[in-house]
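Running this now, will post back.
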Amino acid sequence: MREDNLKRVEHRLRTGVSLVIFALCYLLFSTTPLRSQSQQNELDEVQKKAEGLKSLNIMQPSGVALESTVDPLKYFVGPSDGISVNIWMSPPVNFLLTVTPEGTLIIPTVAEVSVSDMTLDEAKKKIISAIRQKYKANEISVTLIQPRSIVVSVTGVVLNPGLYTFTSVDRANRVIEEANKLSRTQIQAELDVIEEDMSTRNIVLKHKNGSEDRIDLTKFFATKEDKFNPYLREGDIIIVPRKNRAKNVFGIYGEVNVPGRYELVAGDKLSDAIKIAYGFTRLARTDSAEFSRLNEDGSHLTTSIINLENVLTGMGEDILLEPGDRIIVKTKTDLREDYRVFIQGEVLYPGYYPITKNQTRLSQVIKQAGGFTEFASLKSSELIRRSVKKTELETERLLSLRGGASVEDSSDYFLETELRLKREIVNVDFEMLFAQADSAQDVILQSEDEVNIPSKRQTIYVFGQVVSPGHIPYVKGNGIQYYISKAGGYTERAREEDVKIIKSKTKQWLAPDETTIEEGDYIWIPKIPERDFAYYATVGSQVASVLSVFLGLAALIVSVSK
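Update: finished.
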């Protein structure tokens, strides 16, 4: 019993010692520094003022669509910008402030700091310096959290010049785009004329302090350099001049990503032209570009070969461009393309197959596709080629009218051209090529050719004026009467003398004595047309008119001969 009591006392002593050690450690290693009562009172007062400013809604942060992060070295602070000031101490102090109309930032318990016409970077340094004079905090941050709204003016060659409201993180191109939006009373043609005439490289941006910037939108979109399309400031005026489309231009063509004719500005060099054209393509021969220049009266052209790779690396002369200069980036020889043909129908492995340009023959791709199945109909197989583009169809129709063809011929020609747009048949006899090994039928394939191997139909389709239209099993050597009888014979309104055989492969309409029936063909029996009384009355009156003319002529001849 005595031993149990001693153990309990020992346990309580150990617990007490542990609690004392824990309390000492907490006091020694706590992260919250001890402050004097006056320091704590001052901090409490600052916190209250900060909370008061928040309750007054001095600045409400809101989301603004940005193209990228704001560069403090290029952004200018102005009235109504929202600034967050954070003093990182314990507890931290945060102020959400707005630049006043006078261009100052009032920081509670610190001072009123003038930040007008300063870059954001300069304003940050000035604000932090003022705060450090009051607080001994290790870290202070100043952050732009709400760009201000500004009013700018745009004039010159734009559709709708005038005043526009944007934000201070917008650039000049946004204003120009807005000034060129169509209103309800404007038409696209007006905008097309404006966009054709307006300069995109010599735009002037005037600031209210008298300074100017030159805006080069073409170069900005190619290089993304801010200096060619700076942030806007309140009171800015954007002047869009007219460009000289004929003279003040240079051209860059060939293997560049965006070839074309571009507006020339003072100081443009060869390297600028390459940037504006978005660089070279994979096939560009950069070591031997052709550079051409006219003399001032346009009577003499000088051409030289330039290594553009050396120009970009600084090893070659970066020539200053002049009006009318042209750069032609030649193409490397590379014939690698996705040459292919499509095989469908009765082959073992239908699908796309690669070919070599102007070398691969029909028999080779059939072999690649595993050959024909047992159901393949070589007689009806086709090789289809498409060589007419949709853009060429109307041109071909108009050209056909120039030849003096009749309306009917021209209409027929246009119909045939439309069919060519859908498909052109390459005359290949698959039976002679694959069953009789006639190599003369083994044509060279072109890219995008289609090989169609249909199934054996083994029927003749009879339709039109027969009792039971439908498929009739094919029997080699039998004529049309056999199949018509199998279809139940003619109906009462059948026009028996005009029966046609429609060939399965060519879709030609032929008379029975012009062809032999083959599997898959169609037999068409037309109907005797129904005529009402008015039709026969009209025909009778026309016949009577013709007879009266003849009778009149006969009477005249008789009277003259007497």
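Residues 361 and 443 are 6 Å apart (CA to CA). More later if anyone needs it.
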